[in-house]
Amino acid sequence: MADYVVTTDSNSDVLPGFIKENGLTIIPQYYAFGDTVYGDELNMSPHDFYETMRNGELPKSMANNPAVIRERFEKILKKGKDILHIAFSSALSGSCHNVIMTANELMEEYPGREIRVFDSLNASLGEGVSVYRAVELWKAGRSKDEVYDILIQERDHVNVSFTVNDLYHLQRGGRVSKTTAVVGSLVNIKPILTVTSSGELKPDGTVRGRKKSLKTLVSRMEETLDPDAYGKERMVAVLHGDCLDEAKAVADMVKELEFTNVIINDVSPSIGTHAGPGVVGLVHYGKQRQ
Fold first, then answer.
1. CA distances (Å), 105 to each of 92, 228, 252, in order?
2. Is the CB of residue 196 less than 8 Å from the CB of residue 122?
3. Which domains are present in the chain?
4. Which of 14, 120, 152, 204 fits a 20 to 30 Å CA distance from 197?
5. Residue 134, CB half-sphere, CA atoms under 13 Å: how many?
6. 173-72-8 Cα angle (round to 5)
7. Residues 6+ apart with CB under 8 A from 134
8. For residue 247, how many other CB atoms are within 10 A of its CB?
9. Does the model's pTM come out above 0.85?
């Protein structure tokens, strides 16, 4: 087995079974309702989290904790292993900076060890597909540097489109402008958003009606496929904020396009704080995102 391990954070929304199967170390991202902080030992189920939001309570998200990063990384370094960490977009949070800062400190203390931090410039399963890819390459015996270089080459080809019921939560967290949020709040008008190559959120049009917005996610995917570079065996991921039936409907549409590796998972609360209940997103490899 290679002399390094792959790690990530809870914002990557990697499936629990995959985490357990591969013994992945996960750096927690935090969120809070009032004075109660969740994310590590104390957690809410995705349903309970989104139901609390539906009932009118507004959560807030927080970056990861450098002390926790240090503790979890140090356990690995003490075993003589290096680390390749897949990080949440540096354009959306200070979490990536915290990991880099802690990694640099630890490498001074453990001069024989290396921690490489890959900034996914993405979120949720947009980040998560890079975790799956890194583990796949790690299991195939690729070196840490080889995997890092492949992730860099493919990073701008991880396309993400998503829709929300309204833009209030994104606007509240400063992720989109007030003007964009007002347009998105019009009756039965559903926004489509993307994650840019710089790791930021960008409005990408509106459609009328929820069903149309879900179909648009798939049609946008078709428009940005690059079959010569990325075949239909590549992972496609569907993410959702407590609306599994709609996520399954999107996954079924993707499978009709003959993709063979489609996964579905909840949007973790730390990200769901900004997206709100009802977010649905689609992640795939394709043409270079702008």
1. 23, 42, 46
2. no
3. 4-29+64-155 (3.40.50.10440), 158-285 (3.30.1180.10)
4. 14
5. 32
6. 50
7. 6, 84, 86, 118, 147, 151
8. 23
9. yes
